[in-house]
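Posted in: Protein Modeling Q&A

I'm a second-year student putting together a small comparison for a lab meeting, and my supervisor asked me to include a predicted structure for Pentacotripeptide-repeat region of PRORP domain-containing protein. I've never done this before, so apologies if this is the wrong subforum. The sequence is pasted below exactly as I got it from our records. If anyone can share the structure token output, I'd also love a short note on what stands out.
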Amino acid sequence: MFAEMEQIVEQLKQETRFVPKEIIFCNIMNFYGRARLPDRAIFMFDQMSSFRCQRTVKSVNALLNSLLICREFGKMKEIFVGIDQYACPDVCTYNILINARCLSNDLDGAWNVFDEMRRKGIWPNEVTFGTLINALCANLELDKALRLKIYMVEKFNVKPNAFVYVSLMKGLCKVNKLNLAIKLKEEMLENKLALDAAVYSTLISALFKVGRKGEVIGVLEEMRENGCKPDTVTYNAMISGFCKEKDFDSAFCVLNEMEEKGCKPDVISYNVIICEYCKEGKYREANELFEDMPRRMCPPDVVTYRILFDGLCEGMQFREATFILDEMIFKGYAPRAVSIYKFVDGLFWEADVEAVWTVLNSLAKGNIIDVDTWRMWVSVPFFVRHKSIVAQRSVLLLSKDEAASRSFRGLGKLLSMEKIKKAPSLEDSLILSALPKGVTPPSSPSGKGHEMAINEKLFTLHLAHIDRILQSFPSPGIGN
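Accepted answer (user: helix_wrangler)
Welcome! Here is the predicted structure, written out as tokens:
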């Protein structure tokens, strides 16, 4: 409710009983950052002086963090360059800047920021090292990450926190160094660091990946002994592991156990199984689980629809895919552009023109069809083979690309003249009446009854040439 919030903030300018505290504006900037409104965050920062509020490093850090969330790295640099007029940067300021460099995949720049803070006498903390170690692990520079873990203790007397250990364990599991990851887990226990479900979930995923699923039971028992209750992420890791081994019965057992233990499965739990079903060609099973999701109090999301739609298209199950597509559009979802292209291409190969028309009509109504798919639909070979259908239907739906739209509408106009006295069908009349203003080509009474023949070679002309040719012909008139 930003509009209402801003009204209240505006009233603070006239407040005389107290001076608004800086924390108010820090929170507002954080809200703008989370809402991906960086310009409003900057405006709020600039307006603080009009509220008689002194800007300090806290408000500067709040603004930098909001810009970081919005990935406005250039604006962050501009703010930091002029920071001296407000305050001296602290460790939090540099942690934000290091994180920005890491997110930009600029590790050299992150080290430069680290060196700068050292030169200014600012002592790094666990967040500083955690950010650098996480970035090194994400880039699989694990040797450097492990050395930095030792360096932070010996040189700066900063103990690694749980985030550092989890980052290292995830990186090690990615490269199948599971034994070393387990040693880090033991080190966490020795240092009396609380192990959360994320640590164990990472290990469970890695155990399945390297074919050591027999050890998963021991990990679950250790979790319970340490007072760490398995959460949805833990169970999803097990479901994913069993599905990748094609052990769907065990995956469903985990799904049922979740409900028994009071841990409600989320949409990811079902998406994982549906995805693996589709990969195995078990389309009926995938569709049954998809239809059962609402009964299990977990309605499918856009990812679920896309997984099933892609799987059905890959398996040439176009009839079932059409039903899923219609339901997606009805719910306001959209398939990926490449999936639509493959789907329409598959219908082309089956020469099911009516099905293509139905699908494209639905896509056009949902405004989720791209230029490449239209280009396939109005391609020369298909126009020549099915010109009676294409001319009367597809050309009426083009509205985004105005140049192509004029050309294709004109082609439809010319093709329809082959049978001058044939009245438009009820379906086509309804489509014409439903078109938005500006889509139907301009008409002229001078073209009524105009006859002409069409040569098939016309379709081999470039669209621009066709468009110019069409400009020389009068319109057939309103209603034709």
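A couple of things worth pointing out for your meeting: Residues 402-416 form the longest helix (15 residues). The domain at 1-122 is CATH 1.25.40 (Serine Threonine Protein Phosphatase 5, Tetratricopeptide repeat).
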